Amino acid sequence: MKLSKFGEKFSSQSGIVELMDDLGTALNENPDMIFMGGGNPGRIPQVEQVFKARMETILSDPAQLHSLMGVYQSPQGDKDFREQIAGLLRQQFGWQLSERNIAISNGSQSAFFVLYNLFAGTMSDGSQRSIHLPLAPEYIGYRDIGLSDNQFTATRPDIELLDDNLFKYHVDFSRLNINQQSAALCVSRPTNPTGNVLTDGEIEQLDAIAAEYDIPFIIDGAYGLPFPSIIFNDARAHWNHNTILVLSLSKLGLPGVRTGIIVASEEIIQAFTRANTIVSLACGNLGPALARELVSSGEILSLSQQQIAPFYRQRADQTVQWFRQALGDLPYRIHRPEGAIFLWLWFENLPISSQLLYERLKARGVLVVPGHNFFPGITDDWRHQQECIRVSYAQDGAVVKAGIAIIAEEVAKAYGL
Strand order of the sheet with strand 342-347? Predict the structure, then answer.
C-alpha cells in the first residue's frame, strides 16, 4: 500500500493510538484488566441520573427527537446552545461575548486538530511556525496532531520539591523561548497528565507574552473552568479576545457524545467554522441536546461544583494515600494533585524506561500510560521523560487499590529491591 505523506504520518503508531487501542480493545480481550490508563471519567450516579432524565425528555418529544437525529446543525453548532453558553459565561465571569464567539466541534481533539493547523505549520511564504507549550509534560493527544513535522516547541518546567513525597511543576519563564516562529501559546489547565493547575499569575504572565507577540493564547479547559470544574484550588477562569478557550462535555460524564466548545474572537471562530465544515461538515446534535437545559438553568455549574469536583477530590486524596502506603521507601514523588482525574508519578533515576515499565505492568494486567509520550516539543535527551507514568484514579476504588499494589511491586523490581 502506497501512502501519502499525510497517510504515513497519521497511520503510524503513536502514544495516543496506543492509549486509545488499550481503551478500546484491551478490556474486551481481558475483562479482568485493571484499567488505570485512559481518560474515561468515573461513574457518578447522581450525574448519570441527570443525563438519563434529560434523554427521557428528548425521547418523549417527537419534535426534539427529530431535531436530535433528523437534521444537520450549523457547522458552527446549534445557535440556541451557543447563545446559552455565551449567556452563562457573561453572567458568571462578565466576559464580553455573544454566540458569535462560540463554536461547537465533534470533541475537543478534533477542535485542536483544526486550531493547531490553522495557526502553525508551513506558512504561505514557505516559512515554518510552531505551537509553543510553555510547560511540558503536556497532553499526549497534541503530539502527533500537526500536519507538519516539528509543529510543537516546549519549555522544560521548573520543579519545586514539596514535603510528603510531592512535587509541582511551574512555568520556567527564564527558559521560555518565544520568537517570530511561534504561532500560539497553549496550556491545559488543569494539566493532563499531571493534575497541575497553572497559577493565576502564570496565566496572566503568559497572556501578556502572547499579546506582546500578537499570537493567540490557547487554554485547554477540558477538565477545568467553568465546567466540569475538576480543580481543587481557587484558580480563576481566564478569557479575553486574544484567548482561545476550549471546553468539553466529556469529563462531565459524556465522552461518548464527542462535544467540544470553542470560545474565541469572532475572527477566529469564523476561520475555525469554515475549516470545521470541510473536515466535519456539521457538528453532532446529541451533546448540545443533553446539555442545553443544564446550561440555560446554570445547573451545569452546580453539578460540576457540588457533585463532580468533590467526587474526584476524594478519589485523588485516597489514591495518594494508597500509593504512599504501597511505595513506602521507594524513590518516588507524586505531582501535587490540583485537578483533572490523574496522578503523575515520578520515579527518580528509574533504571528502566517508562515504556518498559508500562509493558511489564500490562503483562501483569494493569494499564497505565508511559510518561515519555507527554513531552511534545522536548527534543533533547532529558532523562526525566523516562521516569514518569500517568495513572487514572477514576475507576472503582477497589480496582485502583489492586492496581497500585501491582505498580509498587513492579517499580520495586525495576530498582532491584
Answer: 158-161, 166-170, 332-335, 342-347, 388-392, 369-370
